[in-house]
Amino acid sequence: MKITYYGHSCFSIETGGKHLLFDPFITPNELAKDINADTIPADYILLSHGHEDHVADAISIAKRTNATVVSNFEIVNWFGRHGIKKGHPMNIGGSWAFDFGKVKYVNAVHSSVLPDGTYGGNPGGFILNIEGKNLYFAGDTALTMDMQLIPKFAKLDLAILPIGDNFTMGVEDAVVAADFIQCNRILGVHYDTFGFIKIDHEAAKKTFSAANKELTLLEIGASLSL
Predict the structure, then answer these.
(1) Can you tell me the distance from the alpha carbon of 48 to that of 95, in angstroms, rounded to the nearest whole number?
(2) Domain 2-225, CATH 3.60.15.10 — does that match?
(3) Separation CA 65–CA 3 (nearest Å)
(4) Does the predicted model carry a pTM greater than 0.90?
(5) CB neighbourhood size of 152 (10 A)
């Protein structure tokens, strides 16, 4: 399984010949200027919530690839009204077995509105069981006690957590979140893109290391294997 980071909270998972793309915000992101969104493959596009910095390229990529959009009921319906023919609506606590693996949509503490001001439903995160591995993408969220439920559903091999602070958890809260979800291998996202969320990379890694956890911060366009 290959995970590629495209900046901000956007990444892809390549597994079993399928390409899963999460929260595509590429074209407006100056830090991702070397990434061409028009060349990224997608069989599924999973959206944690409706904010523009998570859905900016979703319509164009979905139309080009004929990908299935997976998100909450409100967001999937909104994409349907914008010409996206394939969608799979979910809501908090629900799960579904797709052809690539199982997905459970879980709570996130944040807000959600679509780029035109339409209500975006409840923000969420995803627990994925793929190729016998369990991953958790938290989406945009504060630290929440609900994270303590996640180990009851899955023993995680990797967690993808926001660490930029101001709009989401910061580094210190993300360390507590890693304890709650019982996962010591963390991929950080949602940092550096804007002035409000710039972080000290080495200090962040040291904070996680001091808690006996590993924080990975990928360069945009770089990948890791799981």
Answers:
(1) 14
(2) yes
(3) 19
(4) yes
(5) 7
